[in-house]
Design brief:
Radius of gyration: 18 Å
Structural class: alpha/beta
Number of strands: 11
Order of helices and strands: EEHEHHHEEEHEHEEHHEEH
Largest sheet: 6 strands, mixed
Strand content: 5-15%
Length: 339
Amino acid sequence: MRLIEFNETAQVWVNASELDALIFTPGRRHNFIDVTAAPSPARNLASAARVFPSQPTQKAIVDPLIAKIDITSLQRNLVTLSSFFTRYYTSATGLQAAQWIYSELVSIKGARDDITVEYFEHTWRQPSVIARIAGAHDGPAGIVILGSHLDSVGSTSTGQAPGADDDGSGTVCNLETFRLLVESGVTLARAIEFHYYAAEEAGLLGSQAIANDYSSKGIEVLGMMQLDMTMYPGTAPVGVSPMTDFTSTELTAFLRALIDTYCTIPWIDSRCGYGCSDHASWYRSGVATVMPAETIMAKTNPNIHSARDVIANLSFEHGAEYVRLALAHLVELGNFVPN
């Protein structure tokens, strides 16, 4: 039996077949959190008091990084990531996908001793992966996180699940953002982290474990951005869609300012429901979160959670908008020092 949370007040015990009916949903996002391990979230009290910039101030750093976004790098990485038969969190290929991401991060890191790449082990087969770039020695407290999920799901736990969009697209945008910042040599005031979560499709299990771990250790988080599906633009009008539910109102307002400043397409607000991706784990623990989606929810990719979620349906140019936004999020908040 598993304890499932469907909203902020409703928790229900479900059996294995009932859980399978929630997880294996071709064409639809999940809207639940498996809270069996932590029915009451550990509140991140260190992150409770927060102030955000009113406008972007770091164009001198962000614009040159944006100019170096490499579409072929996004393509190459997504070809590899979507070639695993499935990245489901209990599968051997799901473990191999995590190991591939780890090896890519280590390769990009090179000999830099201010960067760490680590597995975050879980009780299931697939680990999460975390890369960290240290901030200035005298920088302010409060890290900045960019997240995505590395797992995928098909029609069954063993069904084919290339997960090109969900969430191969967000994961390769995350990798490209890491590459650009590492190769630039930029040092920010704050430490920044790149998270690749296991077991999102099974109820946000990986991100919950990490969010609860950070809360219990008193690790302060200024803000967290989740990239979950970034390359299916949908039908016109095309834009970046900030999710306005179960996210920070203040940080989402700043996200819109980042889109206006750094992206080539406009923002169009939308809502994705409870527990729709890993930002919900951090929101649940009291951390300020944002989630810019690839399109409004009414036009979301109909191929997800199936063997049809393949690269042919996607736009790498659209995905590049989210690399722009990820760079802006990390640099703007990473160099933000409140008065």
